[in-house]
Amino acid sequence: MERPGTEKGRKGKKMRRTFQKSRPYPPIGIEEALKFAEIIDKFGGQNVPETILLKALGLNTKTKSFWAKTTGVKQFDLIAVDGKTYTLTERAKVLLRPKSESEKKNLLRETFLAPKLYKGIYERFKGKPIPDTLSNILYHDYSMNKNVSNDAAGAFIESAKFAGLLGHDNVLKESDTKSPTITVPIKLSKGMASIILPEIGITQKDSERLQRLIDIYVL
């Protein structure tokens, strides 16, 4: 009788394969993600059914390519997914129809830093050349599966170039992501006041916060 530790005993057992899970990453670059957002925008931009998107892409069912697009667009905070419907975020809407080039430039850089992985890599290498061994660094230091680390590195570099953060010198530039602002004059009963607001506007919650601050000041 063969003991479990012998060669015959080992062959008698079923071999179990283990797979290394990879941390979340954008499988595509920002440019391709925006092209996918444009398709959603074409069909209204809100609660667009998955079936319509598949048809627009010439697909009958979800494929690896479709998964890459939807995952990348979500990582860049350009869409919200509810079941099998897709809706553009405010970030995507402004990027597709920016009021100015400076607004688009700043928002692109914010979009680039939206994925946690990208933000971590950026903080590590800003002001420095991107190493040729980036894919290996992703594998060793960022828990990236070796089967996807090359693609992840390529998408990072493409996105950095598209966002204007990586030039011909291969140095990752410092990002100035301050949103453009406008000064709004307000006429008071005694004199004038001014308030500085972001050019892209504010939300209802922001409006309520401002109102509370004004109420506190008046009291």
Overview of the molecule:
The protein is mostly helical. Helices cover 47% and strands 11% of the residues. It has 10 helices and 5 strands, in the order ααβααββαααααββα. Mean pLDDT is 85; it is low at 12-20.
Protein topology:
Blueprint: H1 7-12, H2 30-42, E1 48-49, H3 50-56, H4 64-75, E2 79-82, E3 85-88, H5 90-96, H6 101-112, H7 116-125, H8 134-141, H9 149-162, E4 181-187, E5 192-198, H10 204-218
Antiparallel strand pairs: 1-3, 2-3, 4-5
Q: Which ranges are low-confidence, i.e. pLDDT below 50, for 5 or more consecutive residues?
A: 12-20
Number of strands: 5
Average pLDDT works out at 85
Which outline best applies? globular
Task: Please give a handful of descriptors for the protein shown.
219 residues, mainly alpha, three-stranded antiparallel β-sheet, two-stranded antiparallel sheet, globular
Please provide a brief summary of the model:
This protein has helices at residues 7-12, 30-42, 50-56, 64-75, 90-96, 101-112, 116-125, 134-141, 149-162, 204-218, and strands at 48-49, 79-82, 85-88, 181-187, 192-198. The protein has 219 residues and is mainly alpha-helical.
